Amino acid sequence: MTIEINNRPYDLPDDARISLLDFMRERLEFFGSKKGCNQGACGACTVLVDGERILSCLALAAQYDGRSVTTIEGVANGDELHPLQALFVEHEGMQCGYCTPGQIMSGIALKSELERGAPSNVSSDLTVAPRLSRDEIKERLSGNLCRCGAHNGIIDAVAAYVGGEEQ
Amino acid sequence: MSVHRATPHDAARLHVSGAARYTDDIPVPAGTLHLAFGLSTIAKGRMTDVDLNAVRAAPGVVAVLEADDLPHDNDVSPSAHDEPLLSAGEICYLGQPVFLVVATSHLAARKAARLGQITYAAETPLLTIDDALAADSRFEDGPRIYIKGDAEAAIAQATHTVTGQIEIGGQEHFYLEGQVALAVPQEGGDMVVHASSQHPTEIQHKVAEALGQPMNSVRVEVRRMGGGFGGKESQGNALCVACAVVAARLGRACKMRYDRDDDMIVTGKRHDFRIAYDVGFDGEGRIAGIIFEQFVRCGWAQDLSLPVADRAMLHADNAYHLQHARITSHRLKTNTQSNTAFRGFGGPQGMVGIERVVDHIAHHLGRDPLEVRRANFYAPADATSAASGDGHQPAQAPPAQDDLATRGAAPKGGGVSTVPATAQTTPYGMEVTDFILHDMVAALETSSDYRARRASVAAWNEANPVLKRGIALTPVKFGISFTLTHLNQAGALVHVYQDGSIHLNHGGTEMGQGLFTKVAQVAAAAFDVPLDHVKITATDTGKVPNTSATAASSGTDLNGMAVKIACDTIKDRIAACIAERYQAASDQVIFTDGHVEVGAERIAFKDAVQLAYMSRVSLSATGFYATPEVTWDRIKGQGRPFYYFAYGAAATEVVIDTLTGENRILRTDILHDCGKSLNPDLDIGQIEGGYVQGAGWLTMEELIWDDTGALKTHAPATYKIPCASDRPEIFNVSLWDGANAAETIYRSKAVGEPPLMLGISAFLALSDAVASCGTDYPNLQAPATAEQILSAVDRVRW
Ligand code: FES
Ligand code: FES
Questions:
Q1: ipTM, 2 decimals?
Q2: Nearest to A96 by CA among A149, A32, A137
Q3: What is the CATH code for A83-162?
Q4: Which residues 16-35 of chain A have a CB within 8 Å of chain B?
Q5: Stated pTM of the model
Q6: What pLDDT was estimated at residue B397?
């Protein structure tokens, strides 16, 4: 039973009840993913599993046997920031920063969701690929809470990343 | 110069990499124990039997503590010593900590905490403002009253009058990082506490008290918080004290983190208010006399409620010159969470009161509310003389008591400043000399196209029976300073190392507001070196002592000034050394562009530092700053509690669905005054965030308790804060370009709290939309949730 996190294999915990978030934070000391609510409602713990975003507080580590997890610590290329990380710096997409790792992981995933044509609640037509728009981006980021209200910078950074219309 | 420039957040790169370390991310020493509270399940009564055998027997449990087990003071209050860490028998609210579980893991502690078998003799709790009024359950001996002129007589003689009342709900902080603490025992009984706290000195004080040790045996460190908003001014005391007491007892590191539901159930929130008003005015809407009665639900313990309620009174005028006013404040004690500081600290509630009145007057007269606002504005700055400053009596020291460093400390007296008889004054006798809202509001009226949009909103409402629009433009005038005068002080510690790098420490804490960046800018500007020469380190009670809370928007004003003073001390020493070497006068030595110049000589800053070091000159200094001129008597309600005012204005347009009550913000335009901004990007971030939080408070964030006193909205699934999709579709924010008339750090103004009150425009825009449905005044209550809007629509229609 192994799980890959940021391209390195780890043995899964014996206790099948431990969440992926607790496994990463408490056993492996990957502190980048945050625990904002531990109940799937804030997005601070968002990570990618084989490129798809999930809430790691709602996932059991054991569910992801053999899968590949990417956390905020794994998106940069050495010293070179991932493009979305750089855009968050450029657009000041943060205040306290506690939501930032989750926002970035969501931003990375939502770009591929849009590219593959997955519709959202605000897509006007479910049969064709959604149009890139700020509304689509806002909707797809609304599961990542930001209490500081840094939404403007966050949305700008993600919009620049997915190449949607600039306001 | 590094100031007045947009420079990114000091830790931006760390944040985007997930490497920024919060308290919960500190790797803990091996053997660290984890704590959880067992909570009361009734709101009022006594515990008659406490059976914790199942708790003790639960897997992983190392110890269980009750009130009797605490070796010293059982208190975590920041004011009146009325807040036991663990109940000694009496239950005052539902969710009160009654026992403390110590276990080998966080989960084990939490699971065990549920197993307590407690038998209660329950009593009927006082939950609401009405309950407390009926029982005359209050803090202080009676209501506080501020009086200016004769409001009754003025109202009696006025052409028009209206009366009304508004309920204003509370607000959960929902800092994304919950409360958390880690205590690590040291040799000789010393304790190091890592806290997520806006007030490290208060933590130090309460921990020392609980350990029966002097303050010098406790060191508190705060690197950063994942949001504070006032919720970490006093509400972290319990976790830190619990961790320290157990760590001292068992000799092992202890950590405690509230789970989100516990966090919301245990900790206090923004005070909910009821404000009743009675106002007389003329045909233009000019207020002749006004009577406010503010009812404040404080919860079970005093905490910071008195200064919060004071600040609500101090903002009952907002931007309006009230000639005759009486403001009465009832501080009611209820069996609910102990309400506490929240961004604005009572100011927002007071301001909602007067803005509601102005809106009601305008509706009564059928006038544009903006015109009524203007008719009541204070006279502009250029029409008033600057306060002479003479006649100010020095503030008296507060009476000796052991909790001096908190806003809960309550001095009995204070100086009263005298102002010229002809001056325009607030209801508490402070002269207003810096009023700039005439120009700001005119500028925003133009840039937001308010007039034309008001007309088009009316046209839209004429044509559309279901979707109704509304627009409102509201001003903010917010007083800056701690109203407890002696808290307006700060210290800083600056070291310059031999290689020219600068190490900086100050008493303020970083919670996302960008304080560390701004203060580093101040240091870099003082030496005129690049910002990356300056390193700011975690707030540490061992480096800068006796700090005030990072609160009251004062962080940059106070700490920036202290840092500048420390830097200037070191500069003077370096200059004297260089001057001597080059046989020049000290004042001919100039620090510029990473260099030190004297006459024709120009040497790199680093080389100048080395010369100073070689000449045995001290390159380390402390700085200390105390805000001048403030003096305040909170009992009389007279004086100059504020050093200056910060101003802002916002125009918000909304749309409501009259069939469902659903609503959205369509457009927001803001013009805000940060004086000469130290960092425009950070300031704009604070303004946007403050607006969103203020609009959230008044439109969607709803706290609901059931009849037993249980908070039913204790998780993000039931308590809705604004999210990305709630962001206004058009959101324009600009800074008002002007220097602070008061001598603040580089003439900037504080920006933490004032923008929150810009959100009042969203509430009144909703009221405007509802008003278009009929002829009656909407009498909208806050928060204006879909249900509230729907019932208001029904009221005005039928
Ligand atoms: S911590 Fe996982 S969604 Fe909040
Ligand atoms: S930056 Fe603080 S929660 Fe988003």
A1: 0.95
A2: A149
A3: 1.10.150.120
A4: 22, 25, 29, 31-35
A5: 0.94
A6: 38
